[in-house]
Amino acid sequence: PRHPGVAWDAHPRGGVCSVWGACAVGCCWLRTSFSSAPNGRERCRTSCSAWSIARTSSSGCRVGRSSKGWGVFGVGCVCSRVLLVENVIQQRTERQGAMQNFMFGLVDSPYLVIRVSRETLIQDSLDQLMRYDRADLKKELKVHFEHEEAVDEGGPQKEWFQLIVKELFQPDYGMFTVCSEAPGFYWFEPSSPDLLQFHLIGTVTSIAIYNGVILDVHFPAVLYKRLLGVPVELDDLRQAWPATHHGLHQLLAFDGDVEQVYAATFEYNYSGAFGEQLRHELKPGGAAVPLTNANRREYVDLVVNWLLVSSVQRQFDEFARGFHSLCDSPAFQMFRAGELELLICGSATLDFEALQRATKYEGYDASDQCVQAFWRIVHSFSDQHKKLLLQFITGSDRAPIGGLSNLSLHIHRSADAAALPTAHTCFNALVLPDYFADSPDDTTKAESKLKRGLEFCIQNASTGFGML
């Protein structure tokens, strides 16, 4: 079926699909072409009046500039918009087909519906996702929590993603381990036997990307390299294994007799899941192979490969299989590892000044007393309180690619001065009672009431949904 914004062109050497949409710069149009040649090689090309980007599996990335000079927006921002356009088109296509099947009674729902209990969230989610095929996963997602009345227009699905990630990263599940050299990062637990749950988290990640939801995951950047098929190297250890990275660099730079000073063999010593000391032979018979000046490069390469690839191969393969269940389009060839990380995790940098400039109002003007007081209070919050406020309003405490200026926040006026602020996370909307209309002669009292209301909301309303 044809859709506005999509043009299919016949091509003697293969099919070509062109997707049109607004570019990240916002002042021009971009065209993304996905072509499939007879030899099976795919090519993705994006062009617009301000940027020219061409990426293939062999040539990498080429970024051009317009007559006005280099653009100020990152390539990742443009790539994410291209992917968004593609995902919207695919969702519309699947929804059209599913709606027709629904009308004829061939399917129960035109949506991907997940019904879960908060008490058995993981098992419920795993059971249902395993029943769906790839076409079902491409439908628009709707999440329903048992005994909660909310209709999912985006909010419940955001919380479902967050709860899934939070639970699967708990130590009790034994799926991921905190990197001892960099506690802010998680890595696959090599001894974990529950491969289905690695497939689940990979599938959840791909569904999140497909539905434009940011996840609070803390993997080192090397994971995203591996998902894109980029070979690992020594510098990939720097972020999450800094001490090991430094030690291996020192070994390569050592100006002396390595065999005599290091007295090591082709074995790697490490701590197991329960703190026990273990040894791994880096190659067959490695325990009898001395480490020397001549073979130290091989030793370093084997250590890097074992830490990042072979020790967690089964777990990573299941994660990648789940991830690529949806994230396998030619558009992903446009991303680099850092751009893919931003697409999945968003940015931890929160510029609330930019958010204030980008916010839209209904019933209020930016100059109204209540709005001015709201932003004074927000800017006075600690970083933690700012994250909680963002979580309360949008369902996520992270910024999308491009920062908070790309977040579509809406503040609506409510005349009920006795009510608390209310958030519609589905629409990134905050309903703000006009406390100043109730106390026009005592602005200090009104601002204090607003602050108390915001603090109460962000500290007590981070989970659960209801009908208003």
Summarize the structure in words:
This protein is an alpha+beta fold and 468 residues long. Helices cover 39% and strands 17% of the residues. It has 16 helices and 16 strands. The protein has a six-stranded antiparallel beta sheet, covered by helices on one side. A four-stranded mixed beta sheet has the order 13-14-16-15, with helices on one face. Strands 7-8 form a two-stranded parallel sheet. A hairpin with a 5-residue loop joins β11 and β12. α6 crosses α11 and α13 packs across α16. It starts with 5 loop residues before the first strand and ends in an 8-residue tail after the last helix. The N terminus and C terminus are likely disordered.
What brief labels describe this structure?
468 residues, six-stranded antiparallel β-sheet, four-stranded mixed β-sheet, 39% helix, disordered C terminus
